[in-house]
Amino acid sequence: MAGQPSFFDLSDRYEALSAAGDPLERLAAVVDFEVFRGPLVAALRRSVRGKGGRPPFDPVLMFKILLLQALYSLSDEATEFQIKDRLSFQRFLGLGLDGTVPDATTVWLFRERLVKAKAIDRLFARFDAALTERGYLAMGGQIIDATVVPAPKQRNTEAEKMAIKEGRVPEDWKPAKIRQKDRDARWSVKYTKAKVKEGADPKAAKPVDLAIPMFGYKNHIGIDRVHGLIRTWDASAANAHDGARLPEVVSKDNTGSGVWADTAYRSKKNEAFLAKGMFTSHIHQKKPPRRPMPERIARANAKRSAVRSAVEHVFAGQKHRMGLVVRTIGIARARIKIGMANLAYNFQRLAWLEGRTAPA
């Protein structure tokens, strides 16, 4: 009968994980998670505990669990199981094989307290300050964009949809049903421009543009051009107009004046806002209605695209590697989900930047 694993057995397993390139080990070495303790304690506002009962879990430990959820797209139940099952998770959290693992309900309650305290903005700002302290200043201008974050589709009647759009709760909805219905997420349409392949027969039928309906929320971000780190962000329903969020996501702390964005952000109001703030607009110009795009504007837009395309790497990382979706109900919970994804991206980006500059 096999005995309990010894200290040396565990050490050998840790060495094997490290040799395989455990990304969580690299993350723990690069990110000082203690910088979040102050904002977490302030947000939780723990009262003086009486005698008896189990002591609360460390807030930094719980925050790191939320990070694991963001990195691996885990539900609360799956998170509890994976921590118990995966040695890399246990090492990242500082838990031994005999350590107590927070259950799914504890994780949910911790996140709910952060939601009620609206803590995600302070946590994001604290890490941005830590980046600046380490020399990663926002430099070279900024790139602005937004993407839809999917949420579970709602099956509502036309009357229910009308009531939700008007900001009302359908009359026949009981409290239990209300808790399961997301009344903040919205539908949006994503258009994909069809491209004609080089050398295609000019007489052949041209490919058709696609309009893809999507339901959920939007992640609006601004990254700095030099480091590619997310510096500003906001969350909204999926039907929110990208251009209207420009003032919220443009940072005044960037050392460069340039602002890059696609045509959705081009408007007289936004151009006036940028000019007033001493920013240099590199927003794509729109095609004239019912006329071909002038060649000089097309060339200028192509140069802007070469810079602006960097922001697509952020969304690709969040959607493909992290599997970012919103499974919770309401904009307040969606906001902390999206905010944690933005923090998780910055942690990974910092690890990459540090690895690039590390001596060979």
Automatic annotation (TrEMBL):
What NCBIfam families does the record tag this protein with? transpos_IS5_4
Outline what the protein does: Involved in the transposition of the insertion sequence IS5.
Check the record and name the PANTHER family matching this protein: TRANSPOSASE INSH FOR INSERTION SEQUENCE ELEMENT IS5A-RELATED
Q: Which UniProt keywords apply?
A: DNA recombination, DNA-binding, Transposition
Q: Which family does it belong to?
A: Belongs to the transposase 11 family.
Question: Which residue ranges does the record assign to the Transposase IS4-like domain?
Answer: 141-347
Query: Is DNA-binding a UniProt keyword of this protein?
Result: yes
Residue intervals of the Transposase InsH N-terminal domain: 15-113
Gene Ontology MF term list: DNA binding; transposase activity
One Pfam family matching this protein: DUF772
The name this protein carries in UniProt is Transposase
